[in-house]
Fold this protein.
Amino acid sequence: MINIGIIGFGKMGQIRAHSVELSGKAKVKFIYEENTLPNGISYTIAENANEVIKDPDIDAIFICTPNYLNKPLTIQALEAGKHVFCEKPPAFNSNEVEEIIVAEKKSGKKLMYGFNHRHHESIRHMKKMIDSNEYGKLLWMRGRYGKSVDKTFFDTWRAKKDLAGGGIMLDQGIHMLDLFIMFGGEYDSVQADVSNLYWNLEIEDNVFAIYKNTITGVVASLHSTMTQWRHLFSLEVFLEEGYLVLNGLKTSSGTYGDEVLSIAKNRSTAPAATWKDEEHITFPTDISWASEVKHFLDAVKNDTPIQIGSSADALAVMKLVDKTYEHGV
């Protein structure tokens, strides 16, 4: 059994602990949380993060902390000879990710990041269809990812730039960017408007951006927002001979609705689009957390490469984040 330590035992830490226990491959042995812990915790509780990292019996560490701690704790854990799973974002910018990669290579340990959306069944299905070339080459994509917040958001660490690193882009938009890269490769041209339309915080509440791969011609459009007044996830992929449209995302909160993928071949005779021709697939269960943890634990146990959520993936997406933020609030 792989012995796990978890730093940060809020919502995400508890989700990770549950997935670890369900895997049958590892056991949570040590946790640390600076805030009040829920009742009934059966794990050994550390007095600080360093105590978890330095424990000789711990093989791997899950870092589930506010964003500003991700980079230093990751480096500290790698230098202590631990495998590391860290939530996104990996750091505040791509230069910091490059610093982490130096520590990763020196340690020889596994490092994986929580780009959880790649593990949803619907996303896997879309990736398989795109790669099959059944509907021809990828042409363009449109992603919308947004939520509603209220004034209580002001009191959280996510509303403070020095703790969060950024706003809705690092909170949600980064997931959509990661999927754009997963489906369409890297993008070398970025146009964006990064703005604060309503909340007047030191972080952005809206990002409107267009990413282009000038070699393949693939263009991806992103709107990441927290002034939408409802939770919404929508990813549309258009190919030469059809389209894949994913609306909704199965999550623990249930706020994004059902995860439904609509698929259709294009039509050359009018009317070009008729809804009755679509195939609809509903994905009722969120397997992403279990899949993600399994991938990490298998890599640790079998000494295999991190295929999804590697430090290279993290660097690619953070380079796009950097280019987006260059357009300022």
User: Anything to note?
Assistant: The radius of gyration is 20 Å. The longest strand covers residues 227-239. DSSP finds nine helices and 14 strands in the chain.
